[in-house]
Amino acid sequence: MAHHPLYAGSVPVFDHYLAQLAALVDRTAGREHLLAARLASDMFSAAQQVATASGFALRVAYPLAGRAAPPEPAQDMDRIGLGRRIAAARQALAELQPADFDGAEARRIRHRAGFAELDQSTSEFLHLFGMPNFMFHASMAFAVLRREGLEIGKADFDGQHDYPHGFRF
Question: pLDDT, tens digit, for every residue of 21-48?
Answer without folding.
Answer: 999 999 999 999 999 999 999 999 999 9
